[in-house]
Amino acid sequence: MRTHRSALLLGTLALAAGGVLAGAPSAGATAAESNCNYIPDSARPEVNRGDKGDNVRQVQCLINFYSKYPTYIDVDGDYGQKTAAGIYYVQTCNGTTGGADGIVGPSTWSRLYSPKAACAL
To answer: Please, are residues 107 and 97 in contact by the beta-carbon 8 Å criterion?
Structure first.
């Protein structure tokens, strides 16, 4: 009887722990929330090739932490070739409105923060 109670208790604890872990945010989301804070989440200005500054840093950071883009992008605030390639990847993978044009507008911002499952880490 004692063995049965112990097994039942262990099973209950394992199920409870699994439920807690299932509801926990992913490591990628937690890292992005704590590291991608160059601009407020609500600020989503249009970002274009050649732009510089915190808006670009935010885009670069979100690509690194949320997408499956295979190449790390330096978060240097300079929208150059590497950033463009990352944005084209995000736009193509997620099927953003307007297609893959390299411009970070409302549809791309939305997918940077919430990529489709197939495109997310």
So the answer is: yes
